[in-house]
Amino acid sequence: MALYACRGTLDSIGICIHCRTIEVPDEERAEIRTAFELMTALAGAVRAARAAGRFPLVLAGNCNTAVGTLGGLGSDAAPAVLWFDAHADFNTPETTTPAAASDTPQVVFACVRNGGRSVISRVLTEHYAGGRVVALSAGTQPGDHIHREVADVLGTLGLDTSQEQPKLLTRETIAASTMAITLGCGEECPYVPGVKYTDWPVEDPGGQDEPTVRRIIGDIDGRVRTLLTDLVPDLALPPSVLAS
Predict the structure, then answer these.
(1) What is the pTM (predicted TM-score) of this model?
(2) Which residues pair with 183 in a beta bridge?
(3) Which entry of 71, 116, 123, 150 is 20 to 30 Å from 183 by CA?
(4) Domain span at residue 57?
(5) By C-alpha distance, which of 82, 62, 66, 58 is closest to 7?
(6) Pair 208, 149: CB distance under 8 Å
(7) Cα–Cα distance for residue pair 185/141, rounded to 1 Å
(8) Residue that is last in its domain, among 82, 101, 120
(9) Which of these, 212, 131, 137, lies nearest to 177 by C-alpha position?
(10) Are residues 78 and 169 in the same domain?
């Protein structure tokens, strides 16, 4: 009997794994089933860690079953290490804590330059969600900085963009998200099975005058508020930033 089931479980979440193929007597198959259950629990822990942005996740076992690494490391990400063995208890606090984090939806907003529409969407989502939704933004061809006209208008609405920096949209970022919302990047956006995709046909604010940028922000504002109502039905939305 081969341990290919365990390998497939971890391969499905992006972990490179090395397995030994072994023949197992019938009387030992119960232990193999236990190992598979442990691997399934481990896969859940990995998914939760990815959703929480805990990279890299390094796996190592004393039974020589698997050694793998999880990609998607950001330059300032804090490493997270999880050790397991053949008799690990995946109901311990160390492994159930990340799973709880998976209850928080993560949305990535994607455009081309990551300088306008996706930034507006991310900042508005973070502002309204109050920590109930993780909002990211990225671009398929990120520029050097966000559009000044966008930063200026958002600033007049009380929204700080000083920490916004264009970054590359990666498959790993999408895979770790509940939903990917595209704003003009079309087919350039990587496709990851299992992630919900939604396209927002929103005008590009880059190079536009202030009234146009404000109108575009208003369009995105309405979409973001509707999105949050769908993702977190019990969320008490604060008033729109455009209402003041």
Answers:
(1) 0.60
(2) none
(3) 71
(4) 4-101
(5) 66
(6) yes
(7) 9
(8) 101
(9) 137
(10) no
